[in-house]
Amino acid sequence: MPTPASPAPTGSPSRLAVSLGRLRLPNPILVASGTFGYGREMTGFVDLARLGGIIPKTVTPQPRKGNVPWRTVETAAGLLNSIGLDNDGVETFLERQLPFLAGCGAPVIVSIAGGNIGEFVALARRLDGVAGIAAVELNVSCPNVSHGVDLGTDPETCRKVVAGVRAATATPVIAKLTPNVTDIVAVARGAAAGGADAVTLINTLQGMAVDWRRRRPLLGNVVGGLSGPAIKPVALRCVHQVHRGVGIPIIGVGGIMTIDDCLEFFVAGATAVQIGTASFAEPVISGRLLDELPAALAEAGVATVADLVGSLELPAAAGCPSPVPEEPSDGE
Length: 332
Ligand SMILES: Cc1cc2nc3c(=O)[nH]c(=O)nc-3n(C[C@H](O)[C@H](O)[C@H](O)COP(=O)(O)O)c2cc1C
Known about the structure:
This protein is 29% helix and 17% strand. It is α/β, with parallel strands linked by helices.
């Protein structure tokens, strides 16, 4: 008589695996686009094969030089960047970067951006069926290129981008959304209606830095995107609202520095997380968080990440009868 299989220990791969729509990942710790190069640069710091996913720098149809310097400025608890999607274009990516990434052992999620719906669709079609691509992430949320944000600020336009891409590829589709909108739930609904398997929340918040003595902005592009710990509360709020309001699988990103941050995102409604700016300050961080994850799940009293997702308990007296607060307080 066969003996029943004994349960896998908490840190075993099967316990850490997560599903986002059609996309199954070995664990929920991913690295965010634009903050991990093309993987190769990070091999001295992180065993890439352990990662839940790698999202390389966004690729565009044609090469882009990006914005004039300065392109990054440190701020209190954060980083401002205005890189401007500097990349060598999709053909060079396929020729020079994807072969290494595809062989590194982690799922590769290719981030793409076009200037209009047709360019997004054409990129997705170009990548369809290419070996080594687990999913595409649609960067409809870059604040640093003209028209970059537009496609991700209007729910109906977002729906059309996602639907067009979805029809052009068999690969799972993730829409990466911007927090620079009044109602991110409406945009996430658009992505869901277009057939997105998941949404990534959030890209950077628009900001700027000023040198008052010279009467000049510090960034060459004047404005840029704020990332790092300063934006974590905004990202958590977005994850919470979209989880309650839409129900689509979510990858949370924004200011994650510790394993407690990761668990906060899971409890708020994210199924996986991406590590961004923190990799600049601590290049080994994604591996460290993977090391710490099993003990954190044990401390939370759960066997799998899925058991934690969206487990946030709202206070009954919070005046929040609907899933998403209709009149969020200003805090003062
Ligand atoms: C220098 C830099 C470059 C970035 N480039 C991209 C990019 O090419 N595509 C993209 O979707 N997001 C890009 N991002 C945004 C990050 O992927 C992430 O969404 C954001 O920084 C919030 O996460 P964090 O606070 O953990 O960094 C970039 C962020 C930084 C700091």
